[in-house]
Design a protein that fits this description.
- By secondary structure, the protein is mainly alpha-helical.
- The protein is 69% helix and 0% strand.
- It contains 7 helices and no strands.
Length: 122
């Protein structure tokens, strides 16, 4: 289980790694949703599991409405061809295209990042 006491500065240290994970899924960095997904992955990795809280935090951090965050994340995922294959390769299990949702993408990438954070602390 992630350590929710990890410092905010530690979260910033892993933002590049989160962006790399999002790119490995095939999400285009030019889309605004890419940035939101990368930020959400870091938040998830550092302990927040409730998607609505993650979206709320992203909205506050980026001075936008929650609805905008949700829309931009969904658009970025919808525009990514073969995201199910790319994500499946990263996590090592088959994920059907029909199962791809923002929460699933954020959770899987967040857990990968969490393992990296945990391993770097050892």
């Amino acid at each position: 289980m992630p350590d929710s006491n990890l410092a905010l500065r530690d979260q910033h240290k892993f933002s590049d790694e989160a962006s790399e994970l999002v790119m490995q899924c095939g999400i285009a960095p030019c889309l605004l949703g890419f940035s939101y997904i990368a930020q959400a992955v870091v938040i998830y990795a550092f302990g927040e599991r409730k998607l609505t809280n993650i979206y709320r935090q992203l909205a506050v951090d980026n001075s936008v409405k929650v609805k905008s965050v949700m829309r931009d994340i969904s658009y970025a995922i919808d525009q990514t061809k073969n995201i199910h294959n790319n994500l499946s390769g990263l996590v090592g299990i088959h994920i059907p295209q029909s199962e791809i949702r923002s929460g699933l993408v954020i959770a899987h990438l967040g857990l990968i990042l969490y393992k990296s954070v945990r391993d770097s602390k050892l």
